[in-house]
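Holo model, zinc ion. Inputs:
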Amino acid sequence: MSLELPISHQDAFQCEECDTTINHTFTIEDLEYESSEERGMGEETQYGFTEEVTCPSCQHTNEVTGEVWEYPDGAVNLIQLT
Ligand SMILES: [Zn+2]
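Output:
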């Protein structure tokens, strides 16, 4: 892996307790390797991450998971919540 950490990523999700939409800037400091595949410009690698985010309305702690796609080597191609 040659991504520079941490990665800052802003995204929105719904609180699993009260359905409030939470806008959050994720600071991704830990990536867990999931899979990789050879493509035209080299290797594409998929990682997973988890961050705990407290809901501002109900204080519920949401465990949010997402994935980071690295492609080509060293570049963040896509970040999405799962
Ligand atoms: Zn909530």
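Residues 7-81 form one domain. The two ends are 21 Å apart (CA to CA).
Archived with the compound record.
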